[in-house]
Specification:
Layout (H helix, E strand, L loop, with lengths): L2 H21 L16 E8 L2 E6 L4 E2 L4 H14 L16 H14 L3 H4 L7 H8 L20 H45 L11 H25 L31 H6 L4 E8 L5 E8 L29 H4 L9 E5 L17 H8 L2 E5 L24 H20 L4 E6 L1 H10 L11 E7 L12 H8 L2 H8 L7 H8 L2 H16 L11 H4 L9 H8 L4 H4 L6 H11 L2 H6 L1 H10 L10 E6 L7 H9 L8 E7 L6 H4 L3 H15 L3 H4 L16 H9 L1
Parallel strand pairs: 6-7, 6-8, 8-9, 9-10, 10-11
Antiparallel strand pairs: 1-2, 2-3, 4-5, 5-7
């Protein structure tokens, strides 16, 4: 090796160390310090546009700009004296000719032997920049900011944003609360007038009689629970047999007046079920929670050690994995796994707050193995390396939730249950992250792990609510001003403080008032007697970057779609104007439409439940996209538009079990893989799920 080569490698080693320090946990970390933790070693690409930093202790640091990730890998390769050619992703919408030109440019400007032998005095930085592949930023997913390890300037930068956002975001929230109170005055006055004139203000509600019946039933159950507790109390000389292994399947494990707590297990126990919490590590190091709902009469919870977060790697078959859940259900009586994912500012508890009508409890009692996933940060932000005040912990948006959180949750459920696939049920933002993740330029391979994707109130296209004044304000301000108003950490953390300190009834009332004002929904079809409970599971911690993706001037509110620009959506509208023309040109346009499709052959079967009166999102437009053949690989196995439903009615309406729940239960069964169906138990309430009904079920599917 020549002296020139040695000097070049030595300089590359120095540059690599500087780049590693820039991407490490702390500024004092060094690649030469064997005792340090959190030292950046290399970047690994989860998708071509989603790199994460691998540290020397095996941990992960969240996504960094693609160019910075390529840079550390190139410098590492140069320092080790080996070639490295970065892979060039092919974003959707670029022609093959454009990509070939890009590859030729990379090859022309890339690292080669002649370059390494150039004079040392030539700028190494400029040659490195030439070696980096060209970037193609999707207009809907702009690059995230790079904050780097803490330094005096970075800390000052963060404190400045924290100070400005603490004041401005609080003022913004106060305006929203005052607006909600002000617009509620006519309703309060009408309610008071009806009371004063001896009329029932609730008489005109859609399910008034059913609400009264349920309220009476709850009072009877509360009284029965209190009576039972008195009988079992030590003062009455009753000794409970704690060694009894038999539990009455239909006997509640909790009861009495509702405590109004943010506790999935408490509400599961009120309907004779129970739940256990698993912790899951994503590929970029976030620790997220996964709830398992089970019947305590037939299942023993996993040991705490088995429920801890494991490796960030996903879909790896570990020979020593215990599969505790699988072992408790023999073949022929196993439960098919179903994963439920919540919506924006909500948590998994949204599926558990409606007593026996809760979708999670309905599916569990029907015979499914129910798992509830929470997205990153949630109620307790946690990362394997980062702390709450580190801005890197909050540098994520909907794409990271889709390509990192969702695969981690799916992987852990499949590992625990031993199945090859699962059923996926999502609401609102949960559908967004899934539709994003399944896109062919994101992470389409997870579609092979999903037997069916049930989308409730699918959030793909924006509804008319996006033009409300306070949302327009967020769209008008620049990204920098958005950070001044709302910071670079959690979005309006004061909401979480109020959640912790306010009594349940007060918080439930204010929560409904504010969110109904923001998102223009009502409790017309809900059971008002448990409305305060419904809001105990929201809001959660979300990043300001995530809300900027939803509401800022660059992404969703501008493009009005999660995977297409406004221009392409307008082109779709133009094509839809003439039905006759569409039919005549169907054959000639089919190949062209396939070229612009979002999904490939990996996409699972999809079922849609669209809320017809939803002003927040436009589910009809997504359904129309599928019906018009723009997604040739998508198989819509079920679709329904419920005209009178608003955004949350698909979960909380009194008749949601009839309109949505039972249909979800049946779709999950009909799309279950044959090998899984042969070892799983019957699903109660589904015609054809028993052995005797297999033939008729097959006939129904063929139709």
């Amino acid at each position: 090796m020549s002296q020139t080569q040695l000097r070049t490698r030595a300089r590359a080693s120095v540059d690599y160390e500087h780049q590693a320090e820039k991407l490490s946990l702390d500024p004092d970390c060094s690649v030469h310090d064997g005792d340090a933790n959190g030292v950046a070693v290399k970047a690994t690409f989860i998708t071509p546009l989603d790199p994460v930093i691998v540290t020397n202790d095996g941990n992960r640091l969240p996504s960094v700009p693609v160019q910075e990730a390529h840079k550390i890998n190139i410098l590492k390769a140069r320092a080790e004296g080996r070639p490295h050619r970065p892979k060039v992703p092919r974003p959707r919408g670029l022609s093959r000719f454009d990509i070939q030109n890009d590859i030729q440019n990379v090859a022309k400007n890339g690292v080669n032997r002649e370059e390494l032998l150039q004079d040392d005095r030539e700028s190494e930085t400029s040659r490195l920049d030439e070696a980096l592949p060209p970037t193609h930023t999707h207009p809907l997913f702009p690059p995230l900011p790079l904050y780097g390890p803490p330094t005096f300037l970075r800390n000052l930068h963060c404190l400045t944003f924290q100070a400005t956002s603490a004041f401005l975001s609080t003022a913004f929230l106060l305006v929203i609360v005052l607006g909600a109170l002000f617009t509620s005055i006519p309703h309060f006055l009408k309610h008071a007038w009806l009371r004063m004139t001896f009329r029932d203000p609730n008489a005109e509600r859609v399910f008034h009689e059913e609400e009264k019946r349920r309220a009476d039933k709850r009072k009877e159950e509360e009284a029965e629970w209190l009576r039972r507790m008195r009988e079992l109390s030590p003062e009455n000389g009753h000794q409970e047999n704690s060694s009894s292994s038999t539990i009455n399947q239909y006997e509640p494990l909790e009861g009495g007046p509702d405590k109004l707590v943010c506790d999935i297990r408490y509400y599961a126990r009120r309907v004779s079920l129970d739940a256990e919490e698993f912790r899951v590590q994503t590929e970029d190091g976030f620790i997220i929670t996964l709830w398992h709902v089970y019947d305590p009469s037939e299942y023993t919870p996993s040991a705490e050690a088995d429920r801890r977060a494991k490796s960030p790697r996903v879909f790896t078959k570990q020979k020593d994995f215990h599969q505790h859940v699988q072992k408790q259900y023999p073949d022929g009586n196993r439960r098919y796994p179903v994963l439920l994912v919540h919506g924006l500012l909500q948590s998994a508890g949204a599926y558990c707050a409606n007593d026996d009508d809760s979708l999670a409890f309905l599916l569990c009692k029907s015979g499914y193995d129910v798992w509830l996933g929470n997205n990153r940060c949630g109620f307790e932000p946690e990362h394997s390396l980062l702390q709450y005040r580190d801005p890197r912990m909050w540098a994520w948006n909907i794409r990271q939730m889709g390509v990192m959180d969702l695969p981690a949750l799916i992987s852990r459920v499949l590992e625990e249950t031993g199945f090859e696939k699962l059923g996926l049920v999502c609401h609102s933002q949960g559908t967004t992250e899934t539709f994003v993740a399944l896109a062919k330029e994101q992470r389409p391979d997870i579609g092979d792990k999903i037997s069916v994707f049930c989308a409730l109130a699918p959030a793909v296209y924006a509804g008319p609510l996006i033009d409300k004044m306070y949302l327009k304000f967020m769209r008008i301000i620049s990204p920098q001003m958005f950070r001044v108003f709302f910071g670079i950490h959690s979005f309006i953390p004061l909401m979480m403080t109020m959640h912790r300190i306010l009594p349940g009834k007060v918080y439930g009332f204010m929560g409904y008032l504010v969110f109904s004002f923001l998102f223009n929904w009502t409790d017309t079809r809900w059971d008002r007697g448990i409305r305060d409970r419904l809001f105990q599971f929201s809001p959660v911690y979300v990043s300001a970057e995530s809300m900027r993706w939803w509401l800022g001037r660059e992404c969703f509110t501008k493009q009005r779609c999660i995977l297409a620009t406004r221009e392409s959506a307008q082109q779709e509208d133009f094509e839809d104007e003439s039905e006759e023309e569409r039919r005549e040109d169907a054959m000639s346009n089919q190949a062209d439409r396939g070229r612009t499709a979002w999904y490939d052959e990996h996409v699972p079967p999809i079922a849609l439940w669209v809320a017809g009166s939803d002003n927040l999102v436009d589910g009809r437009r997504l359904l129309r996209r599928f019906e018009r053949g723009r997604e040739p690989h998508v198989n819509v196995v079920h679709s329904k538009v419920i005209e009178e439903y608003e955004h949350l009615d698909v979960l909380w309406a009194i008749d949601a079990v009839e309109q949505v729940g039972k249909e979800v239960r049946e779709v999950l069964w009909k799309t279950m893989p044959e090998d899984a169906r042969s070892i799983c138990r019957e699903i109660s309430g589904v015609v054809g799920s028993s052995e005797e009904g297999q033939a008729s079920n097959t006939d129904d599917e063929s139709k």
